[in-house]
Every structure is written in C-alpha cells, then in structure tokens.
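Homework help board

Subject: predicted structure for assignment chain

Our instructor gave us this sequence and asked us to write out the predicted structure in token form, then describe one feature. I got the tokens but I'm not sure how to describe them. Can anyone check?
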Amino acid sequence: MNYEELQSLLDRARKERSAGKFDISEQFANEVLAVIENSTSFNLVEDEKNSKKTLQVKAILELTWTNYARGNFDIALEQAQRGIALADLHDLKVIKSKAWNILGLVYHSLGTYEKAIEYYNQALEAHSEYGDILGVATLTGNIGNVHAALGALDKALEYYNRAHLSHLDLGDKSGAARVSGNIGIVYQRLGNFEKAIEYYNSALDINKELGEKANIANVTANIGLLYNVLGNHQNSLVHYNNALEIFQEIGDKSGVASVIGNIGGVYFSLGNYEKTLEYSNSALEKYYELGQKSSIASHTGNIGQMYADKKFKEYNPKKAEELLIKAIALSIEIGAKADLVHNYKFLSDLYEKENRAMDALEYFKKYHEVEKEVQSEEATKQAQQLENRRKVEEAERDRQVKLARFQEQEKILHNILPAQIAERILEGEKQIADLHEHVSVFFSDIVGFTQLSQKVTPDELLSMLNEIFSEFDRIARNHGLEKIKTIGDAYMAVAGVPIAQEDHAQRAAAFALEVIEYMKVYRKKSNSDLQIRVGLHCGKAIAGVIGENKFAYDLWGDSVNTASRMESHGEAGRIHVSEDFKSCLTQTLSKGKGLKTKVDFVFEPRGEMDVKGKGKMKTYFLEKES
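My token output:
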C-alpha cells in the first residue's frame, strides 16, 4: 500500500468514529499501523520517509480518539503519550500539538482540570504559532468546556462564543454545531431555556445537514432532557425516542443505556410506574453489559425505591429491601456516597413502613452519618473547585502573557527580516543561506555626505537621513524590492530576493529612476543641493541570516561588489549600470516578461572604464526617455 491509500484508511477511520462505529474505526487504524510496521510492504520513495512517521503517529492518535470516545481513558492516556513520544523523536511538531489536545480532553473527562488546561494551553500556543486558525477555534471551545465543568458559566460562554464565531468564519459547520450544543447546555444550566433550545436546534440542523449521527443523537437527547425539566413530558419522550433510535442504529451501547434510563425517568414523572420499571430494568441490563458500576448502583437503587412505594401496584417490600441492600453494597464498593445517602434513607423509610423500628433507626443513623460526610466532602469539593478555577485562571493569564510576548517578538522579527525569512525562523530553521541565480542589486550613496555632516547638527542630520530613507523604503515596497541595509549614508536593496522575480531588472530600474526623481523634489523642497549616486548590477548572490539574537538579513557575492563599484564610479544624480544589467533588462523587455509600465528605459553608453577590482568594464547611464 502507498501513502495515499494509508491516508485514505485513516480518513475512513475518522469518519467511522464520527458515526459511532468504533470497532470499524479501530480496525482501520490498526491496519495502517500493521502496514507501516511491515516496512517491506510500504511502498514509499526515499524522500517520503517522514510521511511514514507522520502516518504512524496519526494512526496511534486515531486509536487514542476511539478509546477516548469509548470511555477507556487509561488506554487513551497511554496511547496519547506514545504518540507524543514518537512525535518528539521525529520532530513532528504539528502532530504533537494535536496529541496535547487529546490529552487535555482525556484529563478533562477524568476531572483533572489543572492537567487539562495545561495541555490545552500548550496546544493552543502551538496552533497559534503555526497560524492554524481552526485548531485555535477548537481549543478555545475546549477551554470553555473546562470553565463549564468548574461552574464558571460566564467564562465558559465567553470562550464558547469566541470559538463559535471562529468556526462560522472558517465555514467549519461541524465545529460550529459542536460549540452551539455546548452553549445550549450552559444556557440550560443558567435556566435560560429559550436560549438553550435556540442553540440546540442550531446544532441539530447543522448535524443533520452533515449526517453526523452520533452528534444528532446527543443533541436530541439534550433537548429531551430540557423538555423534561420544563414538564413537557410528551415532547421529552419524542426526543428521547428519536435519540434512542439513532444510538441503536450506530451501535452506541452507552448512549442507548443512558437514553433508556432517561425515558424511565420521564415515565416516573408521569406516575406510570409500570413503564418506569420496564425502562429502568432495560437500562440496568445494558449497564451490566457495559460494566458501568456507578450506573448499575444508581438504577438498582431507583428500582428498589419503586418497589418500596405503596402507590406502586406491585409494591413488594421484600424485593425493595433486596434491591436497596444490593445497591448499598455496590455504592460502598465504588465509593458512590451520594447514591449511598439516598439508598440508606429509602431503606430506613421502608423499615419504618414495615414497623421494623430498630432496623429503621440503624439505617437512619447510617444515612445521617454518610450525609454529614457527603456535605463535608461537598464543601471540600467546592473549595477544590474554587482552587482549580484559580489555577486555571492563572494558567490562562500565563498563556496570555506568553502569547503577547511571542506576538511582540514575531512583530519585531517581521520588521527586521523579510516575511518569508521570519516565518522560516519561527518554524525553527536554524541556518538560512540561499543561492539566488538571478537578482538585481541597488546601491546608492549621498554625494559629499562627510562634508555635509560637519555643517549640520546631529538632529538635523538624523532627520534628513530618516526622511530620505523612509521614502526610499516606500518606493522599494511599491516596486517589490527588498531593502537589505543602510550603512551611514549608503542604501542597499535587491530585486529577486527572497522570492525569485523574472522581471527583477525592470523592478530595480524603475525603483532607481523613481529614487532619482524623488531626490530632485527633495532638493527643491529643502532648498539644498543634495544629490545621490546610484549603481545597478545583476547576477547571482547568496542571501541569508547572520546572528542568533540580533538577526540581520544580508547579501553576499560578486554581484554585490560590482553594484557597489557601479555606484562609487558613477556620477551625481545619475544611475550607473553594468553591461550585464543592461543585457538582462533588455532581454526581459524583449520577451514581454516585465511589468506593464509607461517608462521607456534609455541607456547612454559611457564606454570602457577601469573599475577597481574588476578591470576594464563597459558601462552605461540609465535614464528614462523624456
């Protein structure tokens, strides 16, 4: 199998996982791993080895996602850490940031919010650095989930709204639907049911359009819960049954069990104990299949409570006692004290009804003792929740400070280096040195600068140079030249670097002519006789970055030296060019490769002259046709 076929398998694995078909998703991901580990059957050419490593980590992370979706958090943690280790080994920075996101999700599900926010922030910084706007939107939503879990609903809404807008701007409907559903949950918790249903319906419409069945079922179930809270039990049942049908279709057993249990709760609210018992027993059977002990304990106690209710026509105190004792034992085993409190109270009430005063007193004492423990633990939990919120907010402030510093550094870097070169440094490239075969180099120098500097104050000199060179910068940008540096009164720029330009000679010529025209205007405005000499040459040059802390982008080679000689051997107010430059510009214009311009270039022969370090050279003065 080749790279494209394996990537296709991973795409299918992701699609099946989104549809809730975890077994198939896992099968495809494992198939990719098996092929990669058997390198003899993996037909990649030599320069695609990095793709092999990338696919391997992607497949591991796909398995992580599947186990996370199944609730196998311990396995998901191991797989995510394995993915990060491989990404580190092979320097796969982008994939590593995706692994951090999954780790954040797993720790969030485990209730370890400090760890969750730590990994989310690491991933968010990385995605911001890479300019991955979609990744930033997703992680912003995930951080909102942490705030929601910590009870900071206002903060959660702030993050959700920011993420929602980003997903909409990007045209990412799936992401927008996911966040919209989360916003609905927050509004439901705030008691703003109108807003909640608005966002639920928005999420539902998009998920239906995209055909994402697992998400459709989850949102539909949330709407069912909302209607049950509102007392609209019939509408609640309609939505729960719709969700149930989808969960059954995609084989999501956990979703099926949850919805069946919720339907039983609706029938209990309606006073239909027979239906409640039917659905509760069905949910209990599903939870036994899944091995979810907390849900088993909860539903066993609820069923016991029903048999202990004399309004229930199948009132059976013996069976109620049996079920409640079973639920109590299981709650003690797993440490579910909240359920234990309720079941102790139900059993105490049952014994009181049956005139078993001593038993009633015994379990009432147990109820009272555990209730005090729960209240104390709840207070501790709330304190821990506040502490977690404080830590999360601190981590968030730290991230914002780091991000602000990074953005400031990035801004400075872009100010001193060409944008393309700055990006390469930010992406971690250590040494930048590029050979450019075809460039045009510009040099200029102010005539009589040394004498001038002795006649004016330092402020006047600086102001003059700043005004002239700032205008040169503007003209260079207009013509697509890259300013290299200024040295005293000398100005150096180049066309064709760092991006190759077929019309580099034409751009340099047009720039030089405009600079000469600007200096005429400046002389008149400043009432001075200030003039510059300009030199142009074209050929090849090396461009690169010097320094580790104070970066400088510079140019080297014979072309640079020759352009400098053209300037120094030139005349005031004129553009002195080499024969190579004249030839390059003429060829560009004759082939029609240049920019459309109204300027007609004219070359005035200067004849042969001795050029320092170069010997005899034929040179010209460049002018525009009058």
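Reply (TA_rk): Your tokens look well-formed. For the description, you could write something like this. The radius of gyration is 37 Å. That's the kind of observation they're looking for.
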